[in-house]
Amino acid sequence: MKITMLGTGAALPDPDRAQSSILVTLDNGKNYLFDCGEGSTRQMVRANINPADVGWVFISHLHYDHVCGLPFFVLSSWVFNREGRLQVFGPRGTQDFVDHSFENGAYRVDIQARAAYGVRQKNIEAVRPAVTEVAPGLIYQDEDVKIFVDLVEHIPSEITDCFGIRLEAEGKVVAFSGDTAPCEAMVRLAKDADLLIHECTFPESFLAHRAKSGVGTYSHTSPLELGKIATRANVRALVGTHFGHFDSTSPVIKRAAGNHLPIELMGPDLMEEVVRDLRKNYAGPLRLAHDLMRIDL
């Protein structure tokens, strides 16, 4: 299988990273998308993947940097002549998000206008995603894959669920964290995985700063804690992703981040700190993700 890191950034618009999105392509050509943040569709095209050829989307949670690209992806797939309905799996609230996005929501006028043309009316099912709101356990299975989810710790549970994900296909196992604080669920999901793709949003010092500031969630996993998770789960390889702009040199990003990050510490050199902290608890194969990075398993 091939894994393409479409987007490796976090919530802010970043000149160097699209928002969270990962594409898994099996050897038979089937495509499974995990999260769909801003920029994910454009990144697919850059990676020579037709959006209409992606049949399944799995949403880890409903923070906007993980779902705001879904309407654009659906509408683009329609224009790219998708056949049939997209299958969308996500936490409670996903159906409401989809209902408010398409024919009965934000893009109602656009869809009505384009559907006046026969070629668009012919594949109108492409803008009617089939949504399944899921609970922990096996959520999807076909002749090629099994996909499991479990609850992780990020958004307060009274608002909605957040999931980590485990994919089993072609004799391989890939685990994906979504966003989460360190938790036992990720150790279980990643147990003996060939690859763990895990958020590593902020260095230790930045998480402490966010906890004190009270602006935004600090329910993320530091490099130190991620190394412990990877070692305890006995993963064969680790990819850190979902970097929270701490490495940015953009003046715009720094101004926006000023109330919740120690901007005087920001810069590319922090990636070296991330690696040093990961290595304190994890000795296996390690990569820090960048957009359009390809991983072959």
UniProtKB/TrEMBL annotation:
Residues 18-209 form the Metallo-beta-lactamase domain. InterPro entries: AtsA-like_MBL-fold, Metallo-B-lactamas, RibonucZ/Hydroxyglut_hydro, RNase_Z/BN. Its EC number is 3.1.26.11. Gene3D superfamilies: Ribonuclease Z/Hydroxyacylglutathione hydrolase-like. It is an enzyme of class 3 (hydrolase). One of its GO terms (molecular function) is metal ion binding. Keywords: Endonuclease, Hydrolase, Metal-binding, Nuclease, tRNA processing, Zinc. It comes from the Bacteria. Its cofactor is Zn(2+). HAMAP family: RNase_Z_BN. Zinc phosphodiesterase, which displays some tRNA 3'-processing endonuclease activity. Probably involved in tRNA maturation, by removing a 3'-trailer from precursor tRNA. Belongs to the RNase Z family. Homodimer. This is Ribonuclease Z. It comes from Candidimonas nitroreducens.
